[in-house]
Design brief:
By secondary structure, this protein is α+β, with helices and mostly antiparallel strands. The protein is built from 12 helices and 21 strands. Bound molecules: flavin mononucleotide.
Length: 464
């Protein structure tokens, strides 16, 4: 089971990590290089970022296979998000509560007062219209004001000064709710950001858990041992002991700042969030700064895909109970399809009416913590000979079997979330349902050519 360091070491041993020693500017020059590295899937350490003593590491969790390896699975190149979703579901069912420890290497350096300077970190400014440098590889820890339980989520933070950072909380996040509660109560709200945490924590921070279930316990379940927590220097929050850097602070509810960052689906995402005044920074003496390349790049989207696992499970439960003919369901969280989810369902249909009924039911389904239709742009129903986990196969079926216009259903104005940027003034946009199944009276004409027994015949057995 890996922490950040051991995972970096493993990737380096396997020649899956490059070290770049040449001096690099954190603003634009670094992201230009990160984008090229992300395309190769190679992890990276930049050892010399101008103005900072910390190396920057990233590109670690850029495929489902890497997610698996990081939590001790024997994941080969075929290991998919489907496989990892099963591992994740087992962890959700077998959470391990965190354990509090008294000391940790993350306390080797403790900075407070005038020694606090966020500019000492090698934080990239990614895109032209970004509001400034963004911390992207960080998990935030705060307390649920209702239950008092520790909450962990992925939040990006805009650095606005030596000791100020704006920690963004989307409308879907618990943190947004905590910010509102602190503002209403006019009470100071402590928060902490942990950078360079073990991979299991990154995965659990991305996933959505029901109220009362701690992401830290799921991270424990994922890594098969309790997450160790250590007390903050300036608040009663507990933070991951096995982190590289901790930033502690207090939220100033009455001081909100609008900001913009190039988002994961390849467009800008504006947010407004309160300023956090930093009260301490602690770090390992040889700390590495972990960063996730912003924009439409693999690492963010691979970790982000974990957030769709819970939805996939909830939708499967609900739809399979209503439609026993369903074969497979794929809730696709794919940057090449934009910000929204797309759902592909295969079915052994018994009538031509069934796919349309399924599309209606799927858009209306409960996705666990939010409704399917808010975040799902398109639902395509295909026959069971089509592989719903292969987007090319779904495309092929759509354009080979779409006989009539009434097999496309459109929903003109459905409430969306803020990261879909093409919405109208009411934050609503179109949804599409496509019945891409064969019409019953055309089955003979649409038979797919197959080679009997092909799956068992391997070319390598015939080559010397
Ligand atoms: C790389 C990455 C970055 C993310 N950045 C943010 C962010 O800045 N703000 C946010 O609210 N959610 C962000 N998310 C989604 C959160 O993981 C998700 O909203 C999470 O459930 C928030 O935790 P919470 O609901 O406990 O507050 C990000 C996810 C990933 C994978």
């Amino acid at each position: 089971m890996h922490n950040l360091r051991s995972f970096v070491e493993l990737l380096e041993q396997n020649a899956e990590l490059v070290r770049i020693k040449r001096p690099v500017e954190a603003r634009y020059e670094l992201p230009a290089l990160l984008e090229q590295l992300e395309k190769t899937g190679t992890a990276y350490i930049f050892e010399n970022i101008r103005g900072s003593d910390f190396p920057l590491v990233g590109g670690l969790l850029s495929s489902a296979q890497r997610l698996g390896i990081a939590v001790g699975q024997l994941a080969d190149a075929d290991y998919s998000h489907r496989d990892h979703a099963k591992v994740y579901a087992t962890a959700v069912q077998n959470p391990i509560e965190p354990a509090v420890v008294s000391g940790s290497p993350v306390k080797e350096v403790v900075l407070s007062g005038a020694d606090i300077d966020l500019a000492s970190l090698p934080v990239p400014t990614f895109f032209e219209l970004d509001s400034g440098p963004f911390i992207t590889g960080s998990v935030g820890i705060s307390r649920d004001p209702e239950h008092g339980q520790l909450n962990m989520g992925f939040y990006r933070g805009l650095i606005t000064g030596r000791d100020t950072v704006v920690i963004n909380a989307s409308s879907m996040s618990d943190l947004r709710r905590f910010y509102a509660a602190a503002e209403t109560a006019s009470e100071p709200m402590p928060i902490a950001i942990a950078i360079g945490v073990p991979p299991a924590l990154l995965m659990a921070a991305s996933g959505k858990t029901p109220p009362g279930v701690s992401e830290l316990a799921i991270a424990g379940g994922l890594q098969g041992k309790a997450v160790e927590l250590v007390r903050c220097e300036t608040s009663d929050l507990l933070v991951p002991a096995d982190a590289e850097i901790i930033i502690e602070g207090v939220v100033e509810s009455d001081n909100r700042i609008e900001n913009t960052l190039g988002e994961f689906a390849g467009q800008y995402g504006p947010e407004t969030a309160p300023v956090t005044r930093v009260t301490a920074i602690t770090h390992r003496s040889d700390a590495m700064y972990y960063s996730i390349m912003a924009g439409r790049n693999p690492e963010h989207n691979t970790i982000g895909a974990v957030s769709a696992y819970g939805m996939q499970a909830a939708v499967e439960r609900s739809l399979r109970a209503q439609f026993p003919n369903i074969r497979e369901i794929n809730v696709a969280c794919e940057p090449r399809l934009g910000t929204m989810l797309h759902m592909f369902i295969s079915i052994d249909k018994q009538s031509d009416a069934e796919p349309a009924e399924l599309i209606e039911a799927a858009f209306a389904a409960d996705a666990g913590l939010f409704p399917v239709n808010v975040v799902t742009k398109r639902i395509v129903v295909v026959d069971s000979d089509v592989n719903v986990f292969d987007l090319e196969d779904v495309e092929w079926a759509t354009w080979s079997r779409l006989s009539r216009a009434d097999k496309i259903r459109t929903y003109p104005a459905v409430r969306s979330w803020e990261l879909e940027r093409c919405t109208d003034e009411n934050q609503a946009s179109a949804r599409v349902g496509i019945d891409a199944t064969m019409d019953m009276d055309k089955l003979d004409k649409l038979v797919r050519p197959i080679i009997p027994g092909a799956a068992d015949i391997k070319l390598e057995d015939y080559l010397d």
